[in-house]
Design goal:
The chain is an alpha/beta fold and about 450 residues long. The protein has one domain: Glycosidases (TIM Barrel). It has an eight-stranded parallel β-barrel, surrounded by four helices. A two-stranded parallel sheet has the order 6-8. The protein has a two-stranded antiparallel sheet with strand order 9-10. Helix 8 crosses helix 11. One of its GO terms (cellular component) is cytosol. It comes from Corynebacterium kalinowskii. Its EC number is 3.2.1.86.
Length: about 450
């Protein structure tokens, strides 16, 4: 089975991890500006000089050079996010920031020069800080309206230039990282977390409707953190625990695809004594379902009584049969075929792999381990295509080195392109092609035949 003729090969990034220019062009602060150490420590009171994301890899000034390198690799698609606080610096303004809109106009112009399709994420862990601190983040219903205004603004501005949109990055992660995903500080209760994610789901449905009204050719996808979960043993308790954990992972994808809360989630909320505020308007907005489902895939976990898996957002326990990366994430190429089949069988919606990659401490440009990782995962993708899965494309995570979301380090590198910057902020920011750059170029040029 070969890859489809129109398969979208490319790479993926997020604004807060590549752009820099954190106060340039009228941009306001986002939650990332008070997370200098990623998920390791609580948010700071304000920006601190040790936050690598203030400069990141300086895509804000170097985007023509970077997009030219993506074109050299043969990218058909480039996934990036719009920083909400570049368009509405505080998040609650009525008029957008023209400089921010113009920046993304310029990025799109460069992509168009090389025939690269944009895939745009509206909210990639970048809630404006003002909305987090003054409104309490997504637990506040008012954010639905602010997000609708922001989405309408960019969708009208880039009408005909952007076809593929994602609403919230890894929407299910709010349960594990409420500040990163929902701008909610402290330790919110389960009630607050589920109410916040309900607000995001309503906003997502509403924006899907807005996108289709603005341009019937728009394709809107949800984006979930996909984690194959295997029972650690065949004990019935481990089997049931695995099923329950998988349901929690996929619940919000169910809402996006089916337009309503699944029965198992209603029971979970009922058993936990969680009563969500759901209006008649909410129910109507949820019924605007997505055109496709996108997801990130990095690792699988087991469920049962065992050692913790090491994945910050994933939970679960370690699989004794798998190797582990330097950062404790277990490497499971077969899990990608497994989850592709799982999601296709469950939803029968076109799928899009929008994050997959290996974080490693590169010593030089000879990154054979990264080539081996991607080759094995793409071979698994090819098998899933043979299984009958409908797949739009594949964008490798961190196609150019960037600041890690979970650890805020530069040394956790994912890219096919090396960026000369270290964890202490030193470096020239010069770009260099790794060995994997040429390998991925050949994979794309052959449409996967060289795998």
């Amino acid at each position: 089975m070969s890859f489809p003729e129109n398969f979208l090969w490319g790479g993926a990034t997020a604004a807060n991890q590549i752009e820099g220019g954190y106060l340039e062009g009228g941009k306001g602060l986002s939650i990332q500006d008070v997370l200098p150490h990623g998920l390791k420590t609580p948010p700071t009171a304000g920006p601190t000089p040790d936050n690598l994301k203030q400069v990141a890899i300086d895509f804000y000034h170097r985007y023509p050079e970077d997009i030219k390198l993506f074109a050299e690799m043969g990218f058909k698609v480039f996934r990036f996010s719009i920083a909400w606080s570049r368009i509405f610096p505080n998040g609650d303004e009525t008029e957008p920031n023209e400089e921010g809109l113009q920046f993304y106009d310029n990025v799109l112009t460069e992509l168009e020069k090389y025939g690269i399709e944009p895939l745009v994420t509206l909210s990639h862990y970048e809630t404006p800080l003002h909305l987090a601190r003054q409104y309490g983040g997504w637990r506040n219903r008012e954010l639905i309206g602010f997000f609708e205004r922001y989405a309408r603004t960019v969708m009208e501005r880039y009408r005909g230039r952007v076809k593929y949109w994602l609403t919230f990055n890894e929407i299910n992660s709010i349960l594990h990282a409420p500040f990163l995903n929902g701008g909610i500080e402290g330790n919110p209760s389960e009630q607050e977390r589920y109410q916040a994610i309900h607000h995001e789901l309503v906003a997502s449905g509403s924006v899907t409707q807005i996108a289709h009204e603005i341009d019937p050719d728009n394709k809107v996808g949800c984006m979930i953190l996909a984690i194959p979960r295997y029972p650690l043993t065949p004990h019935p308790n481990d089997i049931r625990k695995t099923q329950e954990a998988t349901q929690r992972d996929l619940a919000f994808g169910d809402v996006h695809v089916r337009g309503q809360y699944p029965g198992y989630l209603k029971r979970y909320l009922r058993d936990k004594g969680i009563e969500l505020e759901i209006t008649a308007g909410d129910v109507e907005k949820l019924q605007h379902t997505v055109d496709f489902v996108s997801f990130s895939y990095y690792l699988s976990v087991c469920e049962g009584d065992g050692e913790a898996s090491g994945g910050e957002l994933m939970g679960g326990v370690r699989n004794p049969y798998l190797e582990t990366s330097e950062w404790g994430w277990q490497i499971d190429p077969g899990g990608l075929r497994y989850i592709l089949n799982e999601l296709w069988d469950r939803w029968q919606k076109p799928l899009f792999i929008v994050e997959n990659g290996l974080g490693a401490r590169d010593e030089n440009l000879e990154d054979d381990y990264r080539i081996a990782y991607h080759r094995a995962h793409l071979q698994a993708v090819r098998e899933a295509l043979a299984d009958g899965v409908d797949l739009i494309g594949y964008t490798s995570w961190g196609c150019i080195d960037l600041v890690s979301a979970s650890t805020a380090e530069m040394s956790k590198r994912y890219g096919f392109i090396h960026v000369d910057r270290d964890d202490d902020g030193t470096g020239t920011l010069q770009r260099s092609r790794k060995k994997s750059f040429y390998w991925y170029r050949d994979v794309i040029a052959s449409n996967g035949e060289v795998l």
